[in-house]
Write a structure and sequence with these properties.
The protein folds into two domains: 56 residues; 136 residues, Nucleoside Triphosphate Pyrophosphohydrolase (Alpha-Beta Complex), CATH 3.90.79.10. It has five helices and eight strands.
Length: 206
C-alpha cells in the first residue's frame, strides 16, 4: 500500500476538522477560525503540489457538510477469460468501466448503469470483489475515496463507446494495455482475475 506524504495527511486532517467545525458550529469567532484553518490547508496543498490555490479552494467549496469519503464503483466483467476495459477519454488509458456513485442509487445499480453507459454491455452484478482505499495511488486527489469493485456477468449488448470512452475491448491478464492508474491499477486487476479463478475467494478489503 502506498504511504501518503505526511504533508498530505496533515492538510487533509486540518481540512476535515475545519469542515466539521463549519458544519456544526454557530459561534461566529469559531467559524472564522475554521475558515482560516481551511485556508491554511489549501495553502499547504498548493505549496506542495502542482495545484494552484484557487483550484484547491474550488475543490473545497464543492464539499459541503461533514467530510466523508466519496465512492467510486467499478465493474470486473469477463468474457472467455478476458477482462472488459474501456479507454478513457480523459487520459487515453484503460480502466474497468465505472465512476462516482450517485445519490439515491444502490451500489449494484450504479455499477451496472456505468458499465452499460461506458461499454454498451448490460450486466448482472454477481458479487463484491473488493473495497479499496482509492487514495493510495498516483495521482492523488485531495478528497478521500473508497473504490468498490464488483464481479459482473454479461447479459446482452455489444461493445459501444460513449462520450467518456474512446474504445471498448477485452484483454487477457498477460496482455494488458496501459492502465489509467487512478481508476484501475494492476493490483485490482490481479485480484479480480484471482477471483475469476477461484469463485469462492473472499472479497478483498483494506
Amino acid at each position: 500500500m502506498t504511504k501518503l506524504p505526511k504533508w498530505f495527511e496533515w492538510a487533509r486532517e486540518i481540512y476535515s476538522l475545519s469542515q466539521a467545525g463549519l458544519t456544526y458550529s454557530t459561534n461566529v469567532f469559531d467559524i472564522a477560525n475554521f475558515k482560516r484553518m481551511q485556508e491554511i490547508s489549501a495553502e499547504i496543498i498548493a505549496s506542495q503540489s502542482e495545484l494552484d490555490l484557487q483550484t484547491v479552494q474550488d475543490n473545497f467549496s464543492m464539499q459541503k457538510g461533514y467530510a466523508t469519503p466519496k465512492i467510486d464503483v467499478r465493474a470486473a466483467v469477463f468474457r472467455d477469460g478476458k477482462i472488459l476495459l474501456v479507454q478513457e477519454s480523459a487520459d487515453g488509458k484503460w480502466a474497468m468501466p465505472g465512476g462516482w456513485g450517485d445519490i439515491g442509487d444502490a451500489p449494484a445499480q450504479m455499477v451496472a448503469r456505468e458499465t452499460w453507459e461506458e461499454s454498451g454491455f448490460t450486466v448482472r452484478v454477481d458479487k463484491l470483489a473488493g473495497v479499496y482505499d482509492a487514495n493510495r495511488v498516483e495521482p492523488m486527489e485531495f478528497f478521500h475515496a473508497y473504490k468498490l469493485i464488483f464481479i459482473c456477468s454479461i447479459m446482452a449488448g455489444e461493445a459501444t463507446t460513449s462520450k467518456e470512452t474512446l474504445a471498448v475491448d477485452f484483454f487477457s491478464h498477460d496482455d494488458l494495455p496501459p492502465l489509467s492508474e487512478g481508476r484501475t491499477n494492476i493490483s485490482m486487476i490481479d485480484e479480480v482475475f484471482a477471483q475469476l479463478a477461484d469463485p469462492g475467494r473472499q472479497a478483498y478489503f483494506e
